[in-house]
Amino acid sequence: MDPTLSGGDMKDESEDADQNEDTSKTSESSEPVPLDDAPAEKATQGSDSDLEAEDSEKAFAGITGTELYLEACRLMEVVPVSHFIQNLDKPYINLNHHGLGPKGVKAIAIALVSNTTTTHLELEDNGILAEGAICIAEMLQENSSLQELNISNNHLDTAGAEAIASLLLENMSHVRVLKLSGNNFGEEAASYFAEAFMGNYRVKELDLSHNEFSEKGGQLLGQMLASNTTLEILDLSWNHLRRKGTEALGKGLRGNDALKRLNLSWNAIGNEGALALGEALRVNDVLVHLDISNNQINDEGAKKLCKGLEVNGKLKTLKMTSNPLTMEGATALVMSLRKNTNSVMEEIDISNVLVNETFIKLLDLVYQMHPELDVIYGEVEGCICKFPKQHTNAMKVIQNYLKDHNLQLWDFFRNIDKDGNMKIPVAAFRRALLQQSSIPLDRDQIGELVRKLDRNRTGVVDYSHLEEQKPEQNPGEGEN
Question: What pLDDT sits at residue 321?
């Protein structure tokens, strides 16, 4: 047998000839073997004594991950992926869009059974099908290191959902982040996941976006939310939950004490769905981020949602862009925050709404109450005909101040970053600039600065890239 594939286990010439012949036949077999059988077969090939197949520790003794993977590829009759081999000892492996197929991912699963270094695995868009999902589920029963898994867009269908859900139901894996977007999951799959997550206490982030859940699926997942105590992030965007599905999710949210971020965009939830979420926000004190963009919510629906915003003291981000709102709905949203002195809202995104000067004046009053708030709206009526406001570039103002005071840009950020982790939440960054008096910046300038420093709208200003420049810069270099 080729030493490369067999891991270099060579037979001693004195060994029994019959044993050599049997081993050779086993090695030359091209028939696929079950995930559990491959390690045992491999272990038998390089051993001088009989090993118990169920003894996994002995089965993997002396075999490296690369050797195991190459042997698995030979058995599966697939070409090894060099990128996987090169990164087997790394915490992060990205194999998205590699065309692995069910057999290719089975070989990878075999190699990862005893892997203790990889914590994040990306397998999106590989056509692994339900067969591949079953292999992944079997691997996760043994692997205790993998914490983030992305198997989105793999045509897992209902059978794949059942395999993954069965694993989750038993709390057998250590996965904390699970991405299953775009896998043709329908109502039957929703029942599997609902049952699994009613008792799962490990997964904290779940992505089920771009699937086929409809109202019944929403009802099942809503029941799950009522009892789940671990899930913190749930993405159900681009499904078909509509009114009844969202009403059930709203009921689930009322008693949920774990979920912090919920994405329901592109679900046609309508005004009644907005009402259900508004009722949930009246009592829920955990949710901090809600995305209901593009959901056919008009001014009436916005007013229903406001019933919750008027009393909620936890929600920080509300995304409602691409809904048919007008000035009336936008005004209602802002007024709800004016009524709520306990609001901690930091961002409302209604970026498609055309507003007027009256709205801007109202917003200025609300900003005085909630200086950390940022309302992202569309154009202002009549401003096209007016001479636009001229603002000095905010970064230029800061750089001039630093130069005059013999400081560096690093010092500016470090002074705001009280925690010292080089990442400042946008709301805290905006609040700090508004409260300080040394550098004259108005809200528009600060908004422009935030958009430049957080181009991807992550909600965080990350200045860690300045750390390498810090020792080498002199005060004048801050302008570059």
Answer: 97
Strand, helix or coil for residue 179: strand
Distance CA 449, CA 432 (A): 13
pLDDT band for 411, please (50, 70, 90 cuts): confident
Beta-carbon count within 10 A of 346 CB: 22
Nearest to 299 by CA among 271, 322, 272: 271
User: DSSP of 10-75, one letter per residue?
Assistant: PPPTTS-HHHHHHHHHHHH--S---TTHHHHHHHHHT-SS---TT-HHHHTTT--HHHHHHHHHHH
Q: What is residue 468's predicted lDDT score, i.e. its pLDDT?
A: 52
- In a 3-state reduction of DSSP, which class is residue 364? helix
Structural contact between residues 215 and 244, judged by C-beta atoms closer than 8 angstroms: yes
pLDDT tens-digit readout, 114-128 = 999 999 999 999 999
Contact 202, 175 (CB under 8 A): yes
The full DSSP string for 274-315 is HHHHHHHHHH--S--EEE--SS---HHHHHHHHHHHTT-SS-
- How far is residue 236's CA from residue 225's CA, in Å, rounded to a whole number? 13
CA distances (Å), origin 344, targets 83, 361, 372: 46, 21, 8
Q: Between residues 247 and 398, which one has the greater pLDDT?
A: 247
Say how many CA atoms lie within 13 Å of 480 toward its Cβ: 8
Burial of 449 (0-12, 13-18, 19+ CB in 10 A): buried
Q: pLDDT band for 455, please (50, 70, 90 cuts).
A: confident
Q: Which amino acid is at 223?
A: Q
